[in-house]
Amino acid sequence: MPERAVSEFPDWLSADRLPFPLDPALYDWLYVDKGSLTRRLTDLANGAFSVTPLHEAWQPLRADECAVLNLPAGSEGWVREVYLCGHDQPWVFARSVAARAQLEESGLDLQRLGNRSLGELLFSDPAFTRGTLEACRYPAAWLPTECRAEGLWARRSCFRQNRLGVLVSEVFLSALWQAADIAP
């Protein structure tokens, strides 16, 4: 994916910086529910939840990711992209990143997650603390081709354990809103 100029990055906003009110149901999914999205999706799917890995590799992180993780631009990190699925249908595109040096130092092995949920791992480890939830309309160019659409809502937060930061971004696909009976 080509690197974009910083001015083209989305404006990730915490709830207190929203310029306009959101529908309460959408607001709840983006900001209020601070628990595990995996658990919420599992409940919505009546247990028919799965993770479909798309891409996992060491690669340069995007400039916005480096900024959140307090890294120099172009730093290398572990990138994991997956679909979180309900009834075998992609509901959420998730992208998680962590800086290489801090990840290796921490001993956390993200390379072996496979089709397990990263969220469950992070929420089950009390050493991780979750930062502020931020939301934006996610750039379509950053999405996999098969789910590329303009104006999809996304949220992100950074989970920290000592020096390690794991930035988790979750893009809510149209199929999720249909399943939850919400008009975004």
How would you sum up this structure, described in words?
The chain has 184 residues and is an alpha+beta fold. It has six helices and eight strands, in the order βααβαββααββββα. The chain has helices at residues 24-32, 37-44, 63-68, 100-106, 118-124, 174-180, and strands spanning 13-14, 49-60, 76-86, 89-99, 129-130, 134-138, 152-161, 164-172. Strands 1, 2, 3, 4, 5, 6, 7 and 8 form an eight-stranded antiparallel β-sheet that branches. A hairpin with a 2-residue loop joins β7 (152-161) and β8. The two termini are 27 Å apart. 32% of the residues are buried. Residues 1-7 have low confidence and may be disordered.
Assembly status: single chain
Order of helices and strands: EHHEHEEHHEEEEH
Given the structure, what is the number of helices? 6
Helix content: 10-25%
Number of E-type strands: 8
**Proportion in β-strands:** 25-35%
